[in-house]
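Hi everyone, sorry if this is the wrong subforum. Our group has a chain we'd like a structural model of before ordering constructs, and none of us has done structure prediction before. Sequence below.
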Amino acid sequence: MNVIESFRIALRALFANKVRSLLTMLGVIIGVSAVILLVAIGTGVQGEVTSTVQSLGSNVLFVFPGVLDSGGGGGFGGGGSQGKPFTLNDSQYLAQRLTNVDAVVPLAEVSGTAKRGSNSIRTTLAGSTDQVQSVTSAKLGAGRVFNRSESDAGSRVAIIGYTVKTTLFPSGDDPLGQPITINGQRFTVIGWNEKQGGSLSGNADNQIAMPITSLQNLTATNDVAIILVKVTDPADVDLVRAQIKRFLAPRYGDQITVFSQDQTLGIFNQLLGTLTIMLAGIAGISLLVGGIGIMNIMLVSVSERTREIGIRKAVGARTYDILSQFVIEAVMLSVTGGVLGILIGALGAVALSPVVPAQVTPWAVAVAFFFSAGVGVFFGVYPAWKASQLDPIVALRYE
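Answer:
Right subforum, don't worry. Here is the predicted structure as tokens:
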């Protein structure tokens, strides 16, 4: 019996039990689609963050509280520690003392709720100073940024992200000059940003920017998560880095970290890459469950077709013929499930892309496909071997 005949017999056996075959493939379909979708989301977020950091320029320094060890490979080392947060005074002090810099911008973020009429959205409230536009890639769709007097006075003015705009103003009304409620307090919209996707802190479209003093009054906290320093000349980055550490040392000692663009990209890429692999690994567990399901069904199939196997062996079928037939059936189940899982995962990534950055990568598709095929081979070998070892005389007498 040749390979084509084995495929024909395997197809006939699978189509004879269509519902059972579909249910058997379901575990593989779910596993592959989950791997594709989660890797696509992780890759998309990583790409958005990378483009955001790169858009800031190579002359921007990121000042973090605590010790964040890049470990030479761009990730957090085991010796990292969380330091006490910065304050607005620290940023103002650096702005007064640092030389060869264009801007020193503190960033603070908290979660909050914005409302307008019956519409509301859970969003991120981002506080900064009037210089924030010089160190971010956000582009205004309309309106203006808050000025220094508004920042110093803690004025209740806000710049809303694209998602916030479409949620609070679904009918397309002009949001400029309109009041919205943020955490129970009234703010006036003075601008809105174009759609931009990811940022250093997540989805920039679902953010509301306001003066950091306004955020502090709203949340009763003085914490600053990070300070961005824009150096005038990229050649002076190391000099300014040393100045930052020296000026903040009296209060924080060595519990501060200053990263350049390349170092920051290395950290984010390794963190997001590790997270993507972990998510794919978790999703891959369902592939193993699907493989066990395939083995279980193939063992049942062997039991059901014992008499058929005995007849085939009695008329001259070799052990290899029986073995290859059942392996082919298992591989066809897993490969078909893998293809369907890839299609579902890719369609899911496309459907989610307006909400979450998602990018289907060829390597994820290839890994998911070959892993699903490997599942079929691995979990199909034992049932196939068991079928091939049946004694034809015993099989013929099986009822």
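For your construct planning: Residues 121 and 180 are 11 Å apart (CA to CA). The mean pLDDT is 80.
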